[in-house]
Amino acid sequence: MTLLRIENLSASYGVSQALFGVDLEMAQGEVTALMGRNGMGKTTTVKAICRMIRSDGTLMLDGQDLHVLPSHKVARKGVGLVPEGRRCFADLTVRENLIAAARPGEWTLHRVTELFPRLGERFSQRAVSLSGGEQQMLAIGRALMTNPRLLILDEATEGLAPIVRQEIWAALHRLRQETNVAILLIDKSLKELAAVSDKAVILERGRTVWSGDITDLTPEISEKYVGV
Ligand code: ATP
Questions:
Q1: Angle between helices 94-101 and 132-145 (to 10 degrees)
Q2: Which of 46, 133, 173, 193 has the fewest CB atoms inside 10 Å of its own CB, making it the most exposed?
Q3: Which one has a higher pLDDT value, 89 or 52?
Q4: Whose CA is nearest to atom 19 of ligand 1?
Q5: What percent of the chain has pLDDT over 70?
Q6: Are strands 31-35 and 199-204 parallel, antiparallel or unpaired?
Q7: Is pLDDT above 80 for 85?
Q8: Rg (CA), the chain
Q9: Which CATH fold would you assign to the domain 2-225?
Q10: Is the separation of the CB atoms in 3 and 182 below 8 Å?
């Protein structure tokens, strides 16, 4: 069943238009890679979904028009965002950060710390004292604590040590196998992205130029639009 339906989405920063026609459809439980070179509109698409920027076109989550909602209500409708730059409450402990985000559902402190054991080990530490990788795990944990139907990760492995990246990719594989949450992923590491994704959507200059099963994404298409 379709969870997220985006058609002909446009958006601007003041007078500067960034999105000209984004199409993106996601089903429950599906992992979709949102791809494209730098500046092609990936983060802007995420901002539009989360209503952090004004947009026009079709933007429906589970049959509900997101355009009529303010951003805090989008989160309540089941969109969990892990934004670029892993925002957590620096002065709160790991536990407090997780509890502050909690909404009823299958994701609890127990499940999050089972997915990321390091967070359990750091439960009473303030977020500011965590490593970059641990902060990223906390940001993902916080998004999961909202019990989202759609989880969005914007460059979640950016700037992290290889071993921590592997832990995050492993967690995403587990989420894909063990839960029904739909995941929209933006990441520079195309190999890892392809390994975990079911579908891909490629943007160029604010438009969807390719979408399909990840298995149909040929090296030629990748080279043309993503530059590898
Ligand atoms: P990256 O991988 O570099 O983050 P992206 O695909 O996520 O790229 P966006 O950040 O969505 O791309 O940017 C799309 C376009 O919008 C770019 O031309 C960018 O310069 C412009 N843009 C992004 N943020 C702003 C902003 N706050 N004000 C003005 N223009 C912006």
A1: 30
A2: 173
A3: 52
A4: 39
A5: 99
A6: parallel
A7: no
A8: 17
A9: Rossmann fold (3.40.50)
A10: yes
Choice from 17, 38, 52, 193 to test ligand 1 binding pocket (greatest atom count within 8 A of CB): 38
Cα of 6 vs centre of ligand 1, distance in Å, is 19
Number of H helices, E strands in the chain: 9, 10
Q: Atom 1 (ligand 1): residue with closest C-alpha? A: 38
**Beta carbons of 188 and 155 less than 8 angstroms apart:** yes
Taking residues 155-172, what's their average pLDDT? 93
Question: 104-111: which pairs have CB atoms within 8 A and are 24 or more residues apart?
Answer: 104/147, 105/147, 106/147, 106/179, 107/144, 107/145, 107/146, 107/147, 108/145, 109/145, 111/144
Return the ligand 1 atom nearest residue 46 CA: 11
> Given this model, what pLDDT does residue 25 score?
97
pTM over 0.90: yes
Instruction: Tell me, using a 6 A CB cutoff, whether residue 218 lines ligand 1.
Output: no
**pLDDT at residue 228 is higher than 70:** no
Rounded alpha-carbon distances, angstroms, from residue 173 to 31, 115, 158, 178, 215? 10, 11, 18, 9, 17
Q: Which two tokens stand for residue 139?
A: 């940001």
pLDDT band at 227; cut points 50, 70, 90? confident
Orientation angle between helical segments 162-178 and 132-145, nearest 10 degrees: 20
- In the structure encoding, which two tokens stand for residue 199, read together? 């579908």
Per-residue pLDDT averaged across 169-186, rounded? 96
CA distance 203 to 217: 14
Q: In whole angstroms, give the CA distance from residue 139 to residue 133.
A: 10
